Amino acid sequence: MMNPGHGRGPDSGVVGGGSNSDPFPAGLRVLVVDDDPTCLMILERMLRTCLYRVTKCNRAEIALSLLRKNKNGFDIVISDVHMPDMDGFKLLEHVGLEMDLPVIMMSADDSKSVVLKGVTHGAVDYLIKPVRIEALKNIWQHVVRKKRNDRNVSEQSGGSIEETTGGGGGERERQQHQQQERDDDDADNNSSSANEGTWKSSRKRKEEEVDEQGDDKEDSSSLKKPRVVWSVELHQQFVAAVNHLGVDKAVPKKILEMMNVPGLTRENVASHLQKYRIYLRRLGGVSQHQGNMNHSFMTGQDPSFVPLSGFDHLQALAAASHLPAQSLAQLQATGLGRPSLTKPVMSPLVDQRSVFSFENPKMRFGDGHVGGNKQTSLLHGVPTAMEPKQFAGSSSRMLMPPSMLPSLGQQQQQMLSSSSRVVLPATHSVFNNFPSELQRNSFPLASAPTCYQEEVNSSDARGFANNPSYDVFNDFPQQQQHHNNDNNKMNDWDLRNIGLAFNSHQENTAAFSASEAYSSSQRKRRDTDVTFVAEHSQNQNQPPQNRSLHQMNQIYMGGGGPVRVKTEAVTCPPPTTTLFHEQYHQEDLMSALLKQEGIPNEFDFDGYSIDNIPV
Amino acid sequence: MQRQVALVKQSLFDQGYLDEQFMELEDLQDDANPNFVEEVATLYFKDSARLINNIDQALERGSFDFNRLDSYMHQFKGSSTSIGASKVKTECTMFREYCRAGNAEGCLRTFQQLKKEHATLRKKLEHYFQMARQAGPKETARRPK
């Protein structure tokens, strides 16, 4: 995208105090926006001292028009949060949407919620006033990081914040390959397999993604064609239309019709929609970061947190995007083992998913901070109808004693457990409770299309509570399992904990993921009916499960890393979705339950894909 | 003379009028921008006078729009922290707390205090800059127009 000012400008020859022989940070083109003249003056001075090239601006609207006029004219934007004409977050949103520049927010307001809001809106940094020059000396790193990430994005067709470990373009081929022979336990493969889900889920989507990339690149790097200026109002209309239609179902034509703006073409809308989706995805990525942040807050508690958050994302995504169970499993495994891997998965996901992922952090941490953001509104389009009891109090429940939890959906509980490892003991017990209640509930599900995202921690009460259509499918597998092993149930659900195990035992993790993928994939293909699934699980999986469960228990008790991973992912189709048979091609309801047990060499899986239950 | 200036400045710190942010500003002052701190301070007092005026009017209206007051004060606080006006900043913070608590009485009282601190700081800084100009043999001694 933008060149971070290499050798650009008159300053390029001058080496700043902080820079070495490479003049790079010098000449960085910074746009600083603040309505406070005093701050603006000081900032300008500081930035110039850093040898940046500074453009200052006291109004967000002016800043936006400057940016639009000269799209490649800046490398980074620093903006105040509180401004009279346009909220800093609004500016941030527009910049993220239109120019994809790194934006640093700043404010005298150091309340955690505001900082979090900045981060969730995609700010690369948040500076508390008074801003110190030391902080400004390093802002160039955001430009570099952004550039690097963009490169990764273009390679991987995913847009997200962190870099991925694996190499880029060949990933998809590898995914396909892996789908057929999944014997490789390599972490990279895990990640690729994770992507696989996406790949599989719909070819159309993939192409769309690719197109998005292409467009994005084109837009940001070259501005040949005349562009429609997406004013705040126009954008709001657009968002309203998208929300109305549902993020996943919104197509340019319909949006155009809804917006009913003369002069606007389908192409304009299509382009904007793509960017908007990228933007949403980015938010999803941010949420991941949030998770990490939280993790850091909780330092010392659990390393697994980070992975889990990533994991949650994946699952959430998977659920939202109707990824095959196997992909979920893999994702989970990878996510647990390596947070970084999650990204690739994320990127392909559509807004909806990202939304989900976004929500996840809330759930996990139970912080109200995240809430109240715009993202919430994104849920509009997402069909989320979980029963209140199932999802309600997801975050808080985790902490509660198991006995309290029975009402919760199994999945949710699982999710909870996975999300917060600290709580693990409680969650385990919770899991025990699941079987009886959930199972019953879940069966009815067969009749109704339901998406379930158990694994996704994101079962935000809000997000999901609204969808009437959601049911719990996961129960099937669980039921079987439970029936067979009542004692072991707890352990099974502990899978979330795997994150720990993964962290500690990476090797095991890899094995897990591979095995998971395998089992899940097979099952999915085979199973189209719930009953089918059940049979499968009973016939094939049960015996191994028992065994594995026992092992798991032992392991768990021993204090070793949890070896088993169990994931249940149910995808939530938009309410309107009616075709279940086409799991992979359309957004269907899928619930995949994966069980893995993590003793090296021994894996058990229960993978259920409840694909479409015709309603 | 230079020593006197340093003493005056030190007393401003010792008495809590200024904090280290002010030092940051002084560090930004160089040959190319010899009067930077004073320029910033001038701008600050000009702008903050406007803000004080706004808040005065809002308070006089009698109906307390705490959101609005809080918003004004947020800006006030932002610029005050930026120049290192420690005492003023403290009052700003307190004012905002009263705003959140919906305490009109506290707001009024704090605002009076804030204005006092603001005026005091202004006087002291003017004195300081004046001394600095007299003491400074360099071109820093000239007052910006």
Please characterize this protein's 3D structure.
The complex is a heterodimer of chains A (615) and B (145). With 615 residues, chain A is an alpha/beta fold. Chain A has 27 helices and 8 strands. In chain A, helix 23 packs across helix 27. Chain B starts with a helix and ends in a 10-residue tail after the last helix. The longest helix of chain B is centred in the last third of the chain and has 32 residues. Chain B has a single domain, classed as Four Helix Bundle (Hemerythrin (Met), subunit A) (Up-down Bundle), CATH 1.20.120.160. Chain B is mainly α and 145 residues long. Chain B has 6 helices and no strands. The chains are: A alpha/beta (615), B mainly alpha (145). The interface between A and B is medium-sized, with 20 and 24 residues. Chain A: Keywords: Activator, Cytokinin signaling pathway, DNA-binding, Nucleus, Phosphoprotein, Transcription, Transcription regulation, Two-component regulatory system. Chain A: One of its GO terms (cellular component) is nucleus. Chain A: Pfam families: Myb_DNA-binding (PF00249), Response_reg (PF00072). Chain A: It comes from Microthlaspi erraticum.
Spatial strand arrangement across the major sheet of chain A: 2-1-3-4-5
CATH-defined superfamily of chain B:
HPT domain
Sketch the topology of chain B as an H/E string, one letter per element: HHHHHH
Mean pLDDT of chain B: 89
Q: Total number of helical segments of chain B?
A: 6
Strand percentage of chain B: under 5%
Rg over C-alpha atoms of chain B, rounded to the nearest angstrom = 17 Å
Shape call of chain A? globular
Ends distance of chain B:
24 Å
Could you provide a short overview of the structure?
Chain A has helices spanning about 35-50, 60-70, 90-100, 110-120, 135, 140-155, 170-180, 185-200, 205-220, 230-245, 250-260, 265-295, 305-320, 325-335, 340-345, 350-365, 375-380, 390, 395-400, 410-420, 425-445, 460-465, 475-485, 490-495, 500-505, 505-525, 530-560; strands spanning about 30-35, 55, 75-80, 105, 125-130, 565-570, 590-595, 610. Chain A has about 625 residues and is α/β, with parallel strands linked by helices. With about 140 residues, chain B is mainly α.
